[in-house]
Each structure stands twice: as C-alpha cells, then as structure tokens.
Amino acid sequence: MLRFFKNSPISPLHLKENVTVEVFQVGRLIRTEHAHNLITNAGKNLISRLLAGTSADSIGYLAIGVGNTAPTVGDTELQDERYRMAITRHVVDSAYYMLTTQTYIGSTEANALSIREAGLWTAGLGGTMFARVVHAPVEKNEDITLVYSWSIQAIV
Predict the structure, then answer these.
(1) Does the pLDDT of residue 32 top 90, yes or no?
(2) For residues 69 and 88, what is the distance between their CA atoms, to the nearest angstrom?
(3) Cα 89 to Cα 64: distance, rounded to the nearest angstrom
(4) Residue 83, by phi and psi: left (phi above 0), alpha (psi -120 to 50) or beta?
(5) What ranges in 39-149 are assigned the alpha helix state H?
(6) CB 129 within 8 A of CB 84
(7) Domain count, the chain
(8) Are strands 14-25 and 28-35 parallel, antiparallel or unpaired?
(9) What is the 3-class SS of the chain, one letter each residue?
(10) I want to staple 84 with a disulfide (CB 3.0 to 4.6 A). Which of 63, 72, 118, 147 is the partner?
C-alpha cells in the first residue's frame, strides 16, 4: 500500500508547450505564428503510462484540420481532421529538458484546405492525441508549404 504523507515534499512536473507555424510561399517565408497549445487529458495519461513502463507509444504524427473550436483538456480528436502525416524530425535538448518536433507539409500535401488546427498523435490512424492547437487560418495550395515546430519542455 502506498502512503502519502501530508508534509512530504512533492516535486510537480510542469510542461511548457509552444507551437510555431511557418508559412512559405514559393520558398519564401511570408508568415510566422506562435501559439500555445493544450496538452489533453489523454496526453497527460500517456505521460503517466510512459513513466510507468506500460506504454510503448510515442509522439510520431501531426494531424491538421479545419476546425476552429478552442482546445479543451477533454479533446480526444481534432474538431475536423483532414490530413495526418509522420513527424519529419524529433530533436531532444537534454540541457533544457525539451523535445521539439518539426513537420514539413509540402506543396503537394493538404491542398485546398483552410488549415486552422493541429494535433500531435501517437499513430498514423487512431492512436492518442497528445496535444491540440488552434491558429489563424492558412489557405493551403500548391504555392504554400508549412513547417510546424512543436516544443514541449519539462519545467521542474
């Protein structure tokens, strides 16, 4: 049986998460947007399962959609998902306890969409949505490419 003592020190783990969306038109940066995302309850449970060794899942996919409803911790999916792809790159910065994912959306991907939302996922289909963000719309066409950079930092 585990006992928790009233005066025992507890070191809470806080996560700071930020998203940068870079919009390029024919290779030239035309817009950069910074936003704070929301880690979902399912994402927090994923962290608990990873720490307990009961999950082998990892954040490997980015989904984008056209929904514009503000994120809530109870979200388990995007409001209106339209496209999901593998994350292009993971960078771990051990000095700052930070993971940054970057996902490139090319000129032939997700065209004719007004992209307004994105989420991090554990699988290409189904899976657990770790976090969600809503941002200003990006009108995606063959002249537009995007880079989503998602940073998650442990603050102890």
Answers:
(1) yes
(2) 26
(3) 17
(4) beta
(5) 41-52
(6) no
(7) 1
(8) antiparallel
(9) CCCCCCCCCCCCCEEEEEEEEEEEECCEEEEEEEECCEECHHHHHHHHHHHHCCCCCCCCEEEEECCCCCCCCCCCCCCCEEEEEECCEEEEECCCCEEEEEEEECCCCCCCEEEEEEEEECCCCCCCEEEEEEEEEEEECCCEEEEEEEEEEEEC
(10) 63
In a domain, 10, yes or no: no
Does 9 map to a domain?
A: no
What is the domain range of residue 90? 15-155
Tokens representing 111? 């065209």
**Domain-embedded: residue 52:** yes
CB atoms closer than 10 angstroms to residue 4: 6
64, pLDDT greater than 60: yes
As a whole number of angstroms, the distance between CA 58 and CA 43 comes to: 10
Asked if 131 and 40 count as a contact pair (C-beta separation under 8 A), the reply is yes
DSSP helix/strand/coil, 147: strand
**Domain-embedded: residue 96:** yes
Q: What pLDDT score does 11 carry?
A: 60
113 pLDDT more than 70: yes
What local confidence, expressed as pLDDT, does residue 55 receive? 86
